[in-house]
């Protein structure tokens, strides 16, 4: 990830969030990818980065990490 990509990811996730489909239990990355200009990132890559981002946020806030983080 470049600095620009990390910055764009953080900006978009904090401003718009990420759409989640409870039926398929998967994130919907199409609109997010477009807004954040992360066209070359795969769904799996974005999901992994979101999980790491959320773990970092929990650590900073002093909250316990969820299983697998």
From TrEMBL:
<feature type="domain" description="Chromodomain-helicase-DNA-binding protein 6-9 tri-helical">
    <location>
        <begin position="1"/>
        <end position="68"/>
    </location>
</feature>
<dbReference type="Pfam" id="PF23078">
    <property type="entry name" value="HTH_CHD6-9"/>
</dbReference>
<protein>
    <recommendedName>
        <fullName>Chromodomain-helicase-DNA-binding protein 6-9 tri-helical domain-containing protein</fullName>
    </recommendedName>
</protein>
<dbReference type="InterPro" id="IPR051493">
    <property type="entry name" value="CHD"/>
</dbReference>
<dbReference type="InterPro" id="IPR056342">
    <property type="entry name" value="HTH_CHD6-9"/>
</dbReference>
